[in-house]
Structure formats: C-alpha cells, structure tokens
TrEMBL record:
Keywords: Glycoprotein, Kinase, Receptor, Signal, Transferase. Its main location: membrane. It is an enzyme of class 2 (transferase). Residues 219-256 form the Wall-associated receptor kinase C-terminal domain. This is non-specific serine/threonine protein kinase. Residues 1-29 form the signal peptide. It catalyses: L-seryl-[protein] + ATP = O-phospho-L-seryl-[protein] + ADP + H(+); L-threonyl-[protein] + ATP = O-phospho-L-threonyl-[protein] + ADP + H(+). Residues 33-94 form the Wall-associated receptor kinase galacturonan-binding domain. It is found in: Membrane. It is a single-pass membrane protein. The lineage of its organism: Eukaryota, Viridiplantae, Streptophyta, Embryophyta, Tracheophyta.
Length: 301
C-alpha cells in the first residue's frame, strides 16, 4: 500500500493537485454576462440576466425567456418593452391588465419592498381604478388621492373604450365611480380595499393632452436609480460590472480567463476595495484538506 501511495505522490505532486483545485469550477469563476435578451433588448448595468451580473440590488429581477424579457415581481411577470439607460427608465406591460380594448379579471400590482424603493413607477405613470363602489375609500376618506390628468376625466374611459363601456351599460346608463391616482395608492391598498373591480395603467401622461383613450400608451414606466459602486472605472477599462454571488460585493469582470478585478487593466485579482480577493469557503477548506493530506502522506512515507 505504501508503494502505491509513493507512486501517487511522485506522479501527481501536491502542487499539481492544488493547481487543478484552484482553477476548477470550485474556485470563483465568473463567465461573461449576456448583453442582450434574444438580440432584442440590451442588458447593461445595473441589470443582469445571469446571476452575478449587474448590481446585486437588481438581482433576479429580470428573466430572459425563449421569446421575451420579463420583469419579476411578487404579483407576476411583466413583459419588458424597453429600457432607456440615458433616462434610467424601464417600460413594462402587464399582459393580464385591462385596456381600452380588452377587459380582463382584476388583480393587484405588487412590487417587493426593494423594488418600490429603487425602481417605482414614474410620476407620469397613472393608475386608473375602474368600476369602483360608491363606498370605496378613495371616494370618501381618501378622495384627495384621485385627480384628473392632462384635462382627462374618468368618463372618457367609459365612453371611449369598448371594454370599459360594459360597466356603463350594466347599471342602466349610470357611470360607476372611477379614479385616476398614483402608484402610492395601490402600493398601500389592494384592489379589494379600494373596492374597485379593475385597473389599467397609462404612462407618458404629460404628452396625452387632447389624445383620446383608445390612443393612450398603456403600460407602466419604472424609474430606476443607479448604485454608486465604481462601475464607471470598470467599464472604462473594458470590464463588465457584476458582483460576488456569495458576498454580493462589487466585482469587475474582464474578458480572457474570466479575471475578476477592480479594473481590467490592472491585471491583479482584487475586489472593489483593491485588496486581493479571498477564495470561496469551499476552496479554502479544500486547500487545507489537500495540504494536510499531503503532509500526512509524506510523514507516513
């Protein structure tokens, strides 16, 4: 047995084993991040569709399916129509939402706490709450939450939209109450609490003066903030900003051998603080195990 161990040590030195270990998949290795979803919408910082890409604040908020890019929230998946990186906006559309041409079962729009803080609907995104009860809180205690926008009133939706006209017809030509309001209203009160059966959303409302409801832009525009993490320096050096999936610390990912540095030109393995990066806990434990095994074998032999 000792002869077999001696043969193993001589033909496969400990240094070789460590080299294989350190550059194996157990070591921290980040592949390059995809920059588009199906060659359609560009994916740049702070967003990412691969884990470890973009900012950790936006982790797992986007999903690239076989056909479309989706924004994920607790209430469902919303199709991403566009991302404007200059204006820092992301436009989404709810396929289950009622519009001027289609009436669908009502549901709530719910964002996570962090989503509500870092990328809430923009001020020019309006929620239209439809077919509300006369006992609705927004028509009584919270009536100040309702407003008209760009000279429009709720009556236009009932009179100008095929789908919403059904509410008008159902109660003997008396139009049911409705309300134009902002995101904060639906953020804190569900549709059941609001006592309204349906909602729709419209964005770019500042440009809708004199435009009939059938031509309104239905959907939602989210305004996101850009984390200050030193990504500009990384980008100028040819890298792509990402993060460590374990520590969520900022990393700069470079081409070639998937180097992870503060900036690609430096050529050193360092994190955003400039210090040398530590190996993952799995690799550290494996390193200690291999060194200990090697030492024990040499003592025995």
């Amino acid at each position: 047995m000792y002869q077999l161990m001696s043969l193993f040590i001589s033909t496969f030195p400990i240094t070789t084993l460590l080299t294989v270990l350190l550059y194996s998949p157990l070591a921290v290795s980040l592949s390059q991040c995809r920059t588009t979803c199906n060659n359609n919408i560009p994916i740049n910082y702070p967003f990412g569709i691969d884990d470890g890409c973009g900012s950790p604040s936006y982790r797992k908020m986007l999903n690239c399916s076989a056909n479309d890019l989706f924004f994920l929230t607790p209430s469902g998946n919303y199709k991403v129509q566009s991302i404007d990186y200059a204006k820092k906006t992301l436009t989404i559309y709810d396929p289950a939402m009622s519009t001027c041409s289609i009436l669908q079962p009502h549901h709530d729009f719910v964002m996570s706490d962090i989503q509500s803080v870092i990328m809430p609907p923009s001020p020019d995104t309006i929620f239209a709450l439809l077919n509300c009860s006369i006992d609705s809180p927004i028509l009584n205690h919270y009536k100040s939450l309702c407003f008209n926008f760009s000279g429009h009133s709720c009556d236009e939706l009932y009179g100008g939209c095929t789908s919403f006209r059904l509410f008008h017809m159902a109660i003997n030509s008396t139009m049911p109450p409705c309300c134009f309001t902002g995101y904060d209203t639906v953020k804190y009160m569900s549709m059941n609490i609001l006592d309204c059966t349906h909602y729709t959303t419209v964005y770019n409302t500042d440009n809708l003066k004199g435009v009939v409801p059938v031509d309104w832009v239905y959907g939602m525009k989210l305004s996101y903030s850009l984390p200050e993490t030193g990504c500009e320096r990384c980008g100028k050096s040819g890298g792509t900003c990402g993060f460590d999936v374990e520590t969520q610390g900022m990393l700069c990912m470079c081409s070639g051998n998937s180097n992870v540095t503060r900036e690609c030109a430096s050529g050193s393995l360092a994190d955003s603080t400039g210090e040398s990066r530590r190996l993952s806990p799995i690799v550290q434990a494996s390193y200690i195990l291999v060194v200990g095994l090697g030492a024990a074998l040499h003592v025995l032999l």
